[in-house]
Automatic annotation (TrEMBL):
Signal peptide annotation: none
Keywords: ATP-binding, Kinase, Nucleotide-binding, Serine/threonine-protein kinase, Transferase
Gene Ontology molecular functions: ATP binding
Organism: Streptomyces poriferorum
CDD domains named in the record: HATPase_RsbW-like
Lineage: Bacteria, Bacillati, Actinomycetota, Actinomycetes, Kitasatosporales
The Histidine kinase/HSP90-like ATPase domain, residue ranges: 7-107
Protein name: ATP-binding protein
C-alpha cells in the first residue's frame, strides 16, 4: 500500500477482518493501535530508496503465529537503522509510538532485510 499515514485506516481494517475471522476480537484494540503506529512511523520516517521503483510503498501483514497470538508487521524499503529510545517530554506531540508498541505487545522488534526493514509486534490474548 502507499507509504502514507492514510494507509493506517486500510491496515486497521485488514487487522480487524483477520482477528474477527480467527475469533480473536479481544485483540482488536491493541493490534489496530499497534499497526496504526507502525504505519505512521513508516510514513513519517522511512526514506524512499532511489534504487527501488516502489520506494513509496509499504507492506502490512498480520499472522496468527499461535492459537492466541498474532504478529503484525510493517515492511518498508528504507535500510536506515531504526532509532530507538529517544526520550520525549510531556509537552511533545510525537515520539511515543514505539513506547506504545512496547507497552501493548508481548514482544516486538526490527528485522533488517538488506533492501529494507520489517518492524513487527506480537500480541497475546492470554
Amino acid at each position: 500500500m502507499p507509504r502514507v499515514r492514510e494507509s493506517a485506516a486500510v491496515a486497521r481494517g485488514m487487522v480487524r477482518a483477520a482477528l474477527d475471522s480467527w475469533r480473536l476480537a479481544c485483540l482488536v484494540d491493541s493490534v489496530t493501535l499497534i499497526v496504526t503506529e507502525l504505519v505512521a512511523n513508516a510514513a513519517q520516517h522511512a526514506r524512499v530508496s532511489e534504487t527501488h521503483l516502489h520506494g513509496g510503498t509499504i507492506r502490512v501483514t498480520v499472522s496468527r503465529i499461535e492459537p492466541d497470538r498474532v504478529r503484525v508487521a510493517v515492511v518498508d524499503l528504507d535500510t536506515t537503522e531504526l532509532i530507538l529510545g529517544v526520550a520525549v517530554t510531556d509537552d511533545e506531540e510525537h515520539g511515543r509510538g514505539l513506547a506504545l508498541v512496547d507497552a501493548l505487545s508481548v514482544k516486538w522488534g526490527v528485522d533488517a532485510l538488506g533492501w529494507g526493514k520489517r518492524v513487527w509486534a506480537e500480541v497475546d490474548a492470554g
